[in-house]
Design goal:
globular, about 25% strand, 8-stranded antiparallel β-sheet, alpha+beta
Length: about 450
């Protein structure tokens, strides 16, 4: 049957398979809709309700979980993009939900503005990143969601609900990181500040030293993170701190060697080799962990916080209380060392201050993150299962957009405000218009 003019205007297509970035999640929605306006999005939700279909919005598919999967209506927000307004007096910008972080960061920089902190990639949409809790590392500055000052979402009846600290504060507390359970975000108001410079210092460091000095490094640096290379005692550290400038980026040749050749090109090749010949991985890891040299450079924030990530992988990440980080990481290393596992991807460690978002992984406590990865196409279940056992023993909270096996019973114990979130969900979406199997597992029904 031919599409109606109304359906064509809203960018509607029939059943088609959807796959996430990592390729570990697939779905076949009844139809895919790309609304060109908030009004069309509201009509999409109303129509789905009339037909008894569930609705999920998906950005660029960088989540490793099935948070956006649906057999109903899949909403793509790619037409809802751009900065909608700038309030320099308030230090805020309002941006459409489908805006990709790379486009947002470039547009902000052109206006002499910047986010205070961000994650390490820019391929996500702003709504997808905040809805799953995307974060960078920071002593004092928290996740992207913690920088939200207001947002607007389409609710289950097609209504439009705006919230902030002063308007619908209980919705605001939860919807900044809503996992898609409360509605479809249409716009987000973010705190921004005048553009500034960061000086990054990257330096290899032994595992025993970086863990022994971890608290010191966190205290002395605005942004500290490190990568540990399994099967070795080697780490690579990164410290980002504000500076007066001027910009002193890495040279074009040096940047290409470090960020493209070593971190993407050769890394892709060695991971492919490791997948084909797992026994070679420890030797490869010893060589790879020594390939990156110390370097220092200065640039505007997004050019320092983020870097290209072209090698595809599957990831699990847990937030543990910051004071438990070193113990948990040492247990992880001991587990890998004594096991037959062969892990070709480094383990990433970052930090975050406590925040007040209902289901943030840093809600109410200073946190440290441990992220484990496996190259796409490589069996990851044994490694992730063993790692998850360690993380949960230390009170870990799984990242909402990354692989984990936790359910509502576990999460209700991990989050003091869990019941507050589910009660709000009952009020805003009693019929589970925005539900799916993943949300049923992690939030209950």
């Amino acid at each position: 049957m031919a599409q109606t003019a109304k359906a064509r205007a809203a960018g509607t297509s029939g059943p088609t398979a959807w796959r996430n970035w990592a390729g570990n999640v697939t779905a076949t929605p009844a139809r895919v809709v790309t609304p060109a306006s908030v009004g069309e999005l509201r009509e999409t939700v109303r129509r789905a309700a009339e037909e008894g279909l569930r609705v999920k919005a998906v950005g660029t598919g960088h989540s490793f979980t099935a948070a956006a999967a649906t057999d109903g209506v899949l909403v793509r927000p790619q037409a809802l993009t751009g900065i909608l307004s700038v309030d320099r007096a308030a230090g805020t910008v309002t941006v459409a939900a489908g805006t990709v972080l790379e486009d947002l960061n470039r547009a902000l920089a052109e206006q002499g503005l910047s986010l205070t902190n961000m994650g390490d990639i820019m391929e996500q949409t702003i709504s997808g990143a905040t809805s799953t809790g995307t974060h960078g590392t920071g002593r004092d500055s928290a996740s992207i969601a913690a920088q939200i000052r207001g947002l607007e979402l389409v609710t289950a009846d097609g209504g439009l609900l705006a919230c902030s600290e002063k308007v619908e504060p209980e919705v605001f507390a939860a919807a900044r990181l809503g996992i898609g359970a409360l509605g479809i975000v249409t716009s987000i108001t973010l705190a921004v500040e005048p553009l500034f410079f960061l000086t990054a210092r990257e330096e290899p460091m032994p595992f025993d030293r970086v863990t022994a000095e971890f608290d010191q490094h966190v205290a002395e640096n605005e942004h500290f993170e490190f990568y540990w290379f399994p099967h070795t005692g080697n780490c690579n550290t990164k410290r980002n701190n504000r500076s007066q400038g001027p910009a002193a980026p890495t040279g074009a040749v040096s940047a290409w060697v470090e960020d493209e050749l070593l971190s993407n090109g050769i890394f892709q090749a060695v991971n492919s080799l490791g997948r084909a010949v797992p026994a070679a991985i420890p030797a490869i890891a010893r060589v790879a962990s020594r390939a990156l040299s110390a370097r220092t450079y200065t640039d505007i924030p997004y050019k320092v916080f983020t870097s290209p990530r072209r090698v595809r992988f599957v990831e699990m990440e847990y937030a543990v209380p910051r004071e438990r980080l070193v113990e948990a990481l040492r247990e992880l290393k001991a587990m890998v060392d004594r096991s037959p596992l062969r892990v070709s991807f480094p383990v990433e460690v970052r930090t975050a201050p406590a925040d007040d978002i209902t289901l943030s992984t840093a809600s109410g406590r200073e946190s440290a993150y441990i992220a484990v990865h496996m190259y796409r196409g490589t069996p990851y279940q044994a490694y992730f299962t063993a790692a998850e056992r360690i993380f949960t023993a230390h009170g870990g909270r799984p990242h909402w957009g990354k692989v984990h096996t936790r359910d509502a019973e576990y999460l209700a114990g991990a989050y003091p405000r869990f019941g507050e979130f589910t009660a709000l969900r009952d009020r805003l979406d009693p019929d589970r218009r925005f539900g799916n199997d993943y949300l049923r597992r992690v939030l209950g029904d």
